Amino acid sequence: MQPTFLLSPSKPSKLIWGAGPIIQIPTATSNYTGQGKLALGPNIVVLAMPRNFVVGVLVNNVWSVAGSGSRTDVNQLLLQYFINDNLKKGWYLTTQPIVTANWNATASSGSVWTVPFGGGVGRIMKLGFQPVNINVQAYGNAVHVPQASPWTVRVTFALLYPKLTKQQQKMMLEQKLKQMNEPPPQKK
Fold first, then answer.
1. Does residue 82 contact residue 117 with C-beta atoms inside 8 Å?
2. Residues 84, 53: contact at Cβ < 8 Å?
3. Burial grade of 164 (CB within 10 A; 0-12, 13-18, 19 or more)
């Protein structure tokens, strides 16, 4: 589990940014699925929204500060650049590869880096009254550690909770009430 906390200016400008800590909490129940170390580090995100695009980068690095002495220390970089081309009717094209570096890896282990290339498609829409973000992405890892997969597929389903104005809240409530009061369609 890696919670992140980002502080940003209260009044956004053309360049939006946030900075804060990232915490890696050792929650894995197996030596193969986790590092067994509590790790901390800095986290920063910067983005801009020219025309119908969202373009930005998220960068963090974590270092182990506690955990099992029998486990390898953690010193890892994560860099995720993202480009979204927002199309009509909530559709978008995206690339959001997650580039990683394990700074503690040795040359004899193969590679420090994992560098994916690829992208995907997604849509922001409503399921009933609930806004959702659904997308599918595929990446080939041009560079990867020998034990890692040469490809990645990412499928996302996210519930969205936008901040609504009082008028928008009232309109949604009226729509829900109207829908609840409509008689069900007659079956033939």
1. no
2. yes
3. exposed
Q: Which tokens is 45 given?
A: 């995100």
Could you tell me if 139 and 120 are in contact, meaning their C-beta atoms sit under 8 angstroms apart?
no
Identify the residue whose tokens are 């590092």.
Answer: 35
Beta strand ranges found along 36-187 (DSSP E): 37-48, 53-67, 75-86, 91-95, 98-102, 113-127, 130-143, 151-159
Per-residue pLDDT of the chain (188 residues; tens, 9 = 90+): 899 999 999 887 899 999 999 999 988 888 778 888 999 999 999 999 999 999 999 999 999 999 888 888 899 999 999 999 999 999 999 999 999 999 988 766 678 999 999 999 999 999 987 899 999 999 999 998 888 889 999 999 999 998 888 998 888 888 888 888 888 777 77
How far lies 37's CA from each of 33, 66, 148, in Å? 12, 6, 20
- pTM of the shown model: 0.82
